[in-house]
Amino acid sequence: MSEIDERHPVIAPRRVRFDWADTPLHWIPDEPVATHFINVLHLLLPAGERWFVHVYKEALPLVRDDERLYREVKGFMGQEAVHAYSHQGVLDRQMRDQGLDPGPLTDRIEWVFRRILGDRCWIPFLPRKRWLFVRIGVIAGIEHYTAVLGQWILDARELDEAGADPTMMDLLRWHGAEEVEHRSVAFDVYQHVAGRYWMRFIAFFLGVLALPLMVYAGAVFLCRADPTLKGVRPRIRDYRRAVRRGLFPSNRFMISAGRAYLRRDYHPSRECSTQRALDYLASSPAARAAGGRAS
Questions:
Q1: In 3D, which of 194, 195, 239, 193 has the Cα closest to residue 213?
Q2: Per-residue CA distances from 85 to 2, 75, 249, 284 (Å)
Q3: Which are the contacts of 78, defined by CB distance < 8 A and separation ≥ 6?
């Protein structure tokens, strides 16, 4: 079962709400390209988080023999459902209300999760149950990255210094803090139902190898769809400039996180800071308005 780094929190959703009325389209002032690099998260997360919940509904019967893990999976599913709803709000209100329609790309992303990563396996001769284990392994790898990126956004003071919109920052930090909070759940589920290192290794690459390409393709789409940008296309030097300013994590950071996950003795409890996440959740405007504690 999970190791405990500081104190093990109860995993349960916080019913947060965000008001996007005063959030500009380019919520990092004078940084439209850097804004859209981060906005790719809003494109990917609603479909991705809903897919997590769908897969874990299928996995739940496999963890009934571990009462604590079963409760944590239920709480994890509740948190992920609220995450999906909250990021969908950015697409539906913050972007569309300002003339940027993300629909053409989000429709394709939905298709990938529904068909490529859906219940029907496209790999010949792979049994349905083994395909479920592979998808659980993919989620464990992705959740490792959402946790370390959650820690990164909690500590990214350069975004505050750049004047990033406080409501958007609260969304990203609330979400990041909950990812840190529940970071062990997906890995513990994988270890419980499958546990094979070789499958974890392969599933990791299935889930995250395409991440840099997806981020760049998403940023290209957003810049093209942005009604205020005329012919602006994200370039590698724009990404590097954002990294130098501390507005985006570096390739070195992402590679180091991947190497940590691929250690045979890896466990998420050794990564990130539970206390740092709980401290932010205690001060988050959205979490405080929702009642502060998970419910």
A1: 239
A2: 28, 16, 25, 18
A3: 12, 13
Residue position matching structure tokens 């690459």: 205
Residue pair 189/56 in contact (Cβ under 8 Å)? The answer is: yes
Share of the chain above pLDDT 90, in %: 84
Q: Which of 98, 246, 83 is nearest to 164 (CA)?
A: 246
What span, in angstroms and rounded, lies between the C-alpha atoms of 149 and 173? 10
Cα–Cα–Cα angle for 243, 248, 254, rounded to 5 degrees: 90
pLDDT digits (tens, 9 = 90+) for 212-228: 888 889 999 999 999 99
Q: Which residues contact 106 (CB under 8 A, 6 or more apart)?
A: 43, 46, 47, 91
Render 92-123 in DSSP notation, one character per residue: IIIIGGGT---HHHHHHHHHIIIIISSSS--S
Taking the whole predicted model, whether its pTM rises above 0.85 is answered as: yes
Q: Residue 289's pLDDT is what?
A: 94
Distance (Å, rounded) from C-alpha 23 to C-alpha 38? 15
Q: Which residues of the chain have pLDDT under 70?
A: 1-8, 292-295
Amino acid at 121: C
Structural contact between residues 219 and 42, judged by C-beta atoms closer than 8 angstroms? no
H-only helix segments in the chain: 32-59, 67-89, 103-111, 128-155, 157-161, 166-181, 185-193, 197-208, 211-225, 236-244, 251-261, 274-283, 285-289
